[in-house]
Write a structure and sequence with these properties.
By secondary structure, the protein is of the alpha/beta class. Helices cover about 50% and strands about 5% of the residues. Strands 1, 2, 3, 4, 5 and 6 form a 6-stranded parallel sheet that branches. α9 packs antiparallel against α10. The termini are far apart. About 45% of the residues are buried. It comes from Thiothrix lacustris. One of its GO terms (biological process) is photoreactive repair. One of its GO terms (molecular function) is DNA binding. Its cofactor is (6R)-5,10-methylene-5,6,7,8-tetrahydrofolate; FAD.
Length: about 425
């Protein structure tokens, strides 16, 4: 029996249950990744994905397999491969993202005789573990958290000891993006499962920075104030269950505290947004959001352009936007501040901000990105409505000496001079 595994947001071999299950059911296996030419993606995320694909190829080669990379429209390419190679059974990891779900549904329709193996691993829990039906997902985070905290997280699965023989198929040349210009402020995000697992070990075990996470998580710049695991989570180089297992191991060795709990708390926020997408789908992308409520809105394209370029009347906001353009990264605190400014001070459609983040962020995750923007715009899951930040107060609290503003204003001036 010929099998095909479609790698998407699961660029790893450890804790990949769909791959493990498929591998047991076929004699030959075609491992495929499709570079979607229609995806909105900046140079930093593309570089991270390229590194992740290189690492995955090396991991597969150690098991006698190869990664076939194709470039184009995913549904058309996967359908053609299934038909050309006589694929009887295919596998992939379910993804809570409308575009990706549409691609998969199209392939299934075009290749109806092919059987599919789909096993959830992008989330901490699968639907069967949730203490409610997805359609009954709570409409705010706190009730969700209280209901799922007692649920045990399944342990991650090991890397497959072997894989079926590779089905030969040619790869396409990878598309070229302009490489990010060298910048000393760029954080050392190296894509791939190997680097992702190393970062988990570094943050939890090597440095034990997790023990101070709740105290440092609102930092604006630097490597160690937060876990920095989100890019690897977004591409599936590590799974949330792997992080949870390492966190539990850390607590068993060194003890639990408010900070170790808070890392779990943030994993639950990510989890909530994923299941929110499963419940509401396209409504996460609509102006009125899942609450069907009118947002604060103006019509000012110049204001949007100035925000994207870091040319607003607020130097603190500008510094964050320069950081994003120059590094592909922005702290969680920064994301909330610049989103609040765009929505509340400039009156711009929140979806334009979410789309800019989609294009720029190295750790873009559809459900988390669009869910968070809805939350801040007051059309999502916050029962209190719109979140408006006092920009001056935020700067006095988080950058009182102006170090962050000075750093990124200076860097921007150098790069544009």
């Amino acid at each position: 029996m010929n099998g095909l595994f479609w790698f998407r947001y699961d660029l790893r071999l450890h804790d990949n249950p769909a791959l493990l299950k498929l591998a047991r059911q076929c004699e030959q296996l075609l491992c495929v990744y499709v570079v979607d030419t229609q995806a909105s993606m900046g140079a930093f995320r593309w570089q991270f994905i390229r590194e992740s694909l290189t690492d995955l190829q090396q991991q597969l080669a150690a098991l006698g397999q190869t990664l076939v990379i194709r470039v184009g429209q995913p549904d058309a390419i996967i359908s053609e491969l299934i038909q050309t190679h006589g694929i009887n059974i295919a596998g992939t990891t379910p993804i809570p993202a409308t575009y990706e779900q549409w691609h998969l549904a199209t392939v299934k329709q075009m290749c109806a005789p092919c059987k599919w193996v789909e096993t959830e691993s992008f989330t901490l829990f699968d639907a069967r573990q949730l203490p409610f039906h997805v359609n009954k997902l709570p409409d705010s985070f706190t009730p969700f958290r209280k209901q799922v905290e007692p649920v045990a997280v399944s342990p991650p699965l090991p890397r497959p000891p072997r894989l079926p023989a590779a089905l030969p198929s040619p790869s396409d040349p990878l598309p070229s993006f302009d490489a990010p210009a060298p910048d000393p402020n760029t954080l050392p995000f190296n894509g791939g499962e190997t680097a992702g697992l190393a970062q988990v070990r570094y943050y939890l075990h090597d440095t034990r920075h997790v023990s101070r996470y709740k105290l440092t998580r609102n930092g604006l710049d630097g490597w160690d104030f937060s876990s920095k695991l989100s890019p690897w989570l977004a591409q599936g180089c590590v799974s949330p269950r792997q992080i949870m297992a390492e966190l539990q191991d850390y607590e068993a060795q060194y003890g639990a505290n408010d900070s170790t709990y808070w890392l779990y708390f943030e994993l639950l926020w990510r989890e909530y947004f994923q299941w929110l997408h499963y419940r509401y789908g396209n409504r996460l992308y609509l102006l009125r959001g899942i609450r069907n409520q009118d947002p604060l809105l103006g019509k000012n394209s110049k204001a949007l352009a100035g925000w994207c370029e870091g040319k607003t009347a607020a130097p603190f906001v500008n510094a964050f936007m320069h950081q994003l353009r120059n590094t592909g990264w922005m702290s969680n605190r920064g994301r909330q501040i610049v989103a609040s400014y765009l929505i509340n001070e400039l009156g711009v459609d929140w979806r334009d901000g979410a789309a800019w983040f989609e294009a720029q962020l190295i750790d873009y995750d559809p459900a988390s990105n669009w869910g968070n923007w809805q939350y801040l715009a007051g059309v999502g899951t916050d029962p209190r409505g719109r979140r408006e930040f006092n920009i001056g107060k935020q700067q006095r609290e988080y950058d009182p000496a102006g170090v962050f503003v000075g750093k990124y204003s200076h860097r921007h001036a150098q790069r544009t001079s």
